[in-house]
Design brief:
Layout lengths: L1 E3 L6 H6 L7 E4 L2 E6 L2 E8 L2 E4 L3 H11 L6 H12 L5 H10 L10 H10 L5 H15 L2 E2 L2 E2 L19 H13 L13 H8 L7 H12 L9 H10 L5 H5 L3 H14 L2
Antiparallel strand pairs: 1-5, 2-3, 3-4, 4-5, 6-7
Helix pairs in contact: 3-4, 4-12, 5-7, 5-9, 8-9, 10-12
């Protein structure tokens, strides 16, 4: 099926943006995304894309997943206005232009929680490797892929997955989620601050991981996680100022542009 998207949308940049660990390019120009039990293959560019799902599934699953109700071109114009006349105007405009096409995916909360616990002190290829090992061991197989496992599909055997000390953090997350001590569905109704603080009740979940989950699972786009790359940008490019706090609304989208630009030009 052919679809048209009249806004910023670059599949490869989305896959490489650091917000997701399972989407991948499976052949030249063809990308695979997985949401729950839904698997999508998508290719194309310049506003015209080919997808292998039904029109109903595109409307039901994928339009929301790709955050297509949000106008990212408009947000880039807001960034231009915010940056105008500031000492860091050029770096922000360069970041927004370089990252044009990135969108904040609306991903599964449990998958994001486990994935970003794994992300601590790991590079993106290593995170992807651990996530895929988890899926291969615990996830159900559908077509050519293993799905991300549900909480009840995990066992206590977390060895051989490249997790190291993070095993204890994941066990605590599994215990809290399975017992409903942390209700990931109910968190959708929490304020941003309450959401982050609730996630931080899980062992090993600090500000960075909690804000990543808030941004990439709950679409709290005014949350801007500060990882090593964003800290470096704040120190090196913004004279120690957290400009994301100043930008406020859609700070998480600005963060993605800066993160992608900084990491790609390291």
């Amino acid at each position: 099926m052919e679809i048209k998207i009249n806004d910023d949308f670059d599949i490869k940049k989305i896959v490489d943006s650091g917000q997701c660990f399972r989407p991948k390019e499976i052949s030249s120009g063809v990308f695979r995304f997985i949401v729950g039990e839904n698997i999508l293959h998508i290719s194309g560019g310049d506003g015209v894309f080919n997808v292998d799902c039904s029109a109903d599934d595109w409307e039901r699953v994928w339009k929301n997943y790709f955050d297509l109700a949000t106008n990212y071109a408009s947000i880039r114009r807001d960034i231009e206005a915010f940056a105008a006349g500031k000492p860091y105007e050029k770096i922000l405009l360069d970041s927004a232009n370089f990252g044009k096409g990135i969108r904040i995916l609306r991903q599964e909360p449990f998958e994001m929680l486990i994935s970003f616990i794994i992300s601590q002190r790991k590079n993106i290829p290593a995170i992807r490797s651990s996530v895929e090992r988890i899926c291969a061991r615990f996830g159900r197989r559908v077509d050519e892929v293993h799905l991300f496992p549900r909480v009840e599909e995990f066992t206590d055997d977390l060895t051989g997955l490249g997790l190291a000390y993070r095993k204890d953090y994941i066990r605590d997350a599994l215990n809290k989620v399975s017992s409903n001590a942390i209700d990931l569905e109910a968190l959708k109704n929490f304020s941003d601050v309450e959401l982050v603080e609730e996630l931080k009740l899980i062992r090993g979940v600090g500000d960075k991981v909690a804000n990543c989950v808030a941004l990439f699972a709950y679409n709290r786009v005014n949350r801007a996680p500060v990882d090593v790359w964003i800290k470096r940008a704040i120190d090196e490019d913004f004279n120690g100022e957290n400009i994301f706090d100043a930008f406020d609304k859609n700070a998480g989208i600005l963060q993605q542009y800066v993160f992608y630009h900084k990491r790609s030009n390291r």
